[in-house]
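Per your request, structure below.
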């Protein structure tokens, strides 16, 4: 219950919303880059790490939104 007001402030903050939008756009580019065999051969490990970072951010986002709108 103590986290609800914090989550509500974060979820409604424009900076958070813009950050999530930027991560979504970055993820779209990342997915496109991952279709290149040559780039994957030379930078595959980095791209996989970036993919994990994006997924962690998405998990954080969904947790914040769930806490913000919990009954």
């Amino acid at each position: 219950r103590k986290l609800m007001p914090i989550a509500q402030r974060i979820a409604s903050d424009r900076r958070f919303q813009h950050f999530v939008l930027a991560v979504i756009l970055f993820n779209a580019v990342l997915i496109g880059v991952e279709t290149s065999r040559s780039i994957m051969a030379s930078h595959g490990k980095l791209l996989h790490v970036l993919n994990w970072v994006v997924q962690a951010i998405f998990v954080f986002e969904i947790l914040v939104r769930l806490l913000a709108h919990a009954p």
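The radius of gyration is 15 Å.

Regards,
D.
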